[in-house]
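Sample entry follows:

:::
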Amino acid sequence: MKTLIALAILLQSPVAGAANLNAKKEIVMDTTYLNKTVAEIVLEQPGRFRVLEEFGIDYCCGGQRPLRSALDAKGIEPQTLLERLAAADAAREEVDTTDYLAFTLTELAGHIVDTHHVYLRTELPRINGLVEKVAKAHGDTPKADDLQKLAGPVQALTAELQAHLMKEEQILFPNIERLESGQPAMGLDGPIGVMMREHDSAGDALTAIRTLTDDYTLPEWGCNTYRAMLDALQELEQDLHQHIHKENNILFPRAQALAARTE
């Protein structure tokens, strides 16, 4: 039976021309989240990804793990994260609440290309340039070694993603679209397996980047370019997490289920 814990928190509401007023709002924390997979939690309410990002919980490549297992692996107290999820649900922050489960496979593939692929092709060259610039500018600082090493995973991720996007756009996505339209299509399991392994590799690169940047922490002596680099890398991580989540947990399983029904 669902266990609900009522929490009362104070939410400030600004009022024009007057002092802020405090308003109590009841927050309901649902402990059944712990038995759901991380992916299910995000699928139910896409805006929850921000909370998971705060705690470093992987909801894309590691999305099939129960939340309890993900928390145990990180050494995070369940109540702490559940309270944040409950508060985010109650606040209904302005985030992407699009129901991607309602998209056709063709629509979802097109959305991924138009949103995430376009983003990567625009941002990856800029990010590589920032990493190179910051490493050169701060070669005599305590972070010099890490900044030099940072170019490795960033360049490797860029090269892998460039090939990855082409394979999706030229092979996998057109094949999924043919399948959905009732046309003859090649098997999906092999290509999808390759894409998911490459997603795992991208996740490893993101972990290395986060480690080398101390969780995107700006040193006291860091310049504005350093700050811009960290912001860009963190945004890249968030976008890739959403990108991979939409493929691993929505597009690919639905495409494989359709293929199985049409065999």
About this structure: The chain has eight helices and two strands.
